[in-house]
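Handover notes (outgoing to incoming on-call)

Open items:
1. Purine and uridine phosphorylase: sequence verified, structure written out, both below. Nothing else pending on this one.
2. Nothing else urgent.
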Amino acid sequence: MLANGATGPPDRRTFEIAIFCALVVEADAVIALFDEIWDQDGQFMKAHGDNNSYTIGLMCQHRVVLAHMPRIGKVSASTVAANLRFTFPHIRLGLLVGICGVVPLTQAKREILLGDVIITTHVIQSDFGMLYPHIFARNNLLRDNPARPSEEIACFLSKLQEKAVQSKLRDRMRTNLRTISSSPDFALSTYPGVEEDKVFEAAYIHKHDTKACATGICSDDDVCPEALEMSCTELGCDLGKLVPRTRIQQMAETGSSLMYHSPEIHFGGMLSDDQVIKSALHRDLIAQKEGVIAFEMEGAGLSETIPTMVVKGSSDYADSHKNKRWQPYAAATAAACKASSGRISG
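Purine and uridine phosphorylase structure tokens:
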């Protein structure tokens, strides 16, 4: 898709593909899969007023610019995309690559596990819509945004969903994952293990037992600040509240190891919001109402400026039990999937 056929550092006006990452862990995983990285010499002098930082090089025979966002959120994404346009005026495709929260069971009854990859078919901006006396109606960015994904992206997404293409995509993704995890610098990017993939009942909140809370705050209606910073192990979260899942059981029975774990790829809508969702009840309500399968924070900001495809690895279940343990692996699976899709002709 958008092949450039470049073998050396070209003029910045010839770049057509931009990758965006909001977190260092996301950018590190992407950079690990660059085939070649070019220094920012005179050919890559930024345009006046462009405050962005870039990594520039070759990936899957495409000239690619990676834009490093200074912070998470739609405003940061929009600003970085606008600045990038000054320096790289002919960008036709934006790829937002990183991590996201997910719905553990979609409306189609498909299980999503941590480390699985979500490729968005459409982005819904949480505060983009119309406020009526009785309801707030959100707009669908794919349909209503003037900068919605191009016809080329829509066609490419359709191709990626073909069974034969998905099989190739998963095979190449596994190869790319091995490339990342084999590096000593990415020791934390290996699969954490099936026993670490836990999803609790939606109503079960991450908090102290009422009698064990030193502050006396933890109750059915409130959670103390200390509990918010503690892990499930430290809190002693009740494993009896775990939701049984078929894929987890199958992996446990077959002895799925770190080496042979193979993430699934899911296609669906994402909600783009400046709030980090850490409530399973809200997660499920939003998913049911909006038909989304994942939650992220930058897609809507990029889509305002550049036609964008979002590729994100599942790092948590958007509930109160979320932590950062899965972020390196989820970032690696997203980067591996992006690099794999780049080898599939549009």
